[in-house]
Amino acid sequence: MRSVWRIVATKEIREIARDRRVLTGTLVGPILIVTLFVSLFSLLESSVRERKVLVALVGSSHVPEESGAENRIKFQSVESREAGVKLLRDGKVNLVLQIRPAPGGGADAEAVYDPAESLSEIALRSTERAFDTANREAMRALLDRQGIVSAQAAPYRFQATEDRRPAGLGASSVGTLLPYLIVLWAFYGIMSSVTDLFTGEKERGTLETLLASPGSRIQLAIGKIAALFLLSSLAAISTLVAVLVLGNTGLPMIKAAFPEPPRLSLAGGSLVLVALLPFAAFCATMTAAVTATSRSVREAQTHLTLVSFGVILPAVYSQFIGFLGDSSAAWIGWTPVLGAAVSIRQALLGRPDTGMAIASTVVHLFLAGLFFVMVARSFQGDRLLRKS
Q: Among the CATH numbers 3.90.1720, 1.10.287, 3.40.50, 3.40.190, which is that of 51-152?
């Protein structure tokens, strides 16, 4: 005869599989969200790369020919600076450019832009590069006429070399966002099911029958948590699989987000699972502990909403950890949620950190053990059956 916990886990999984709402939210939901995100990122990247910026040129000023070298700047003549600024504020142009003759020769160029608009920032940078190129060409021509070698006027030559070229998911803008989505779906993928497994059964009156069945209450708790763990793992893994599949389709609407087909090495995939599975166990036991100690579905949902902020904030922080210079700090691996998100991120970017993944595993398994003790105690006592 199979163990009681296996029977309970099988029962819960079958009930979850019959509920189309749960399957849609847990498995289909991540795929749809990932498809939407990837399509949006691809659209943004292709739009920024190909879109022309519109510059309002005051009067009949002379503009360097190099300003159109990138084929991204389109000029529109306006009579005055004020007219150009009005067009800028109305969103009809991205930049206002006015060029006046300078007293000592040459010209002074003034660019008016809107720092709150991304396209205005892009127009400013493109125009700056155009004038910088024109200045360098003029300087080179002047030095040649004077018989001066250009290297004497510019003794320093700067060159940037990539330490390691990003590959697979690391070469895609989606690669940094994916760990955030994986962590969130590992938690939110079981939100609708966990309340039904505990407080839902309590309100329907079926929990008393289950507790009266043969087998220890500990095994009943293990069975329910095992079903949640499987559901959490599937929700997170389906997110990763969706990105890998989409990236390899070669669809025009997806291709801009993936300079090359995404790949995940065996070592990287192993470290993703090392960080993900203990985190899924942490999510399963934590949500089970919250709902097992709640008296109603409404109370459980309220408590889960509050707890969700403890998952969202570290997950969001993981997206900015690189800007703070702390991406490899030892404390990250020992921080719940954050350690899992950063470990998964490093593995997906082709820069696996084994030490961080192990630290994250230890932390989440330890917390999962603590939450399981809370669930076991509620099953052993009468608190589990209390209703509001």
A: 3.40.190
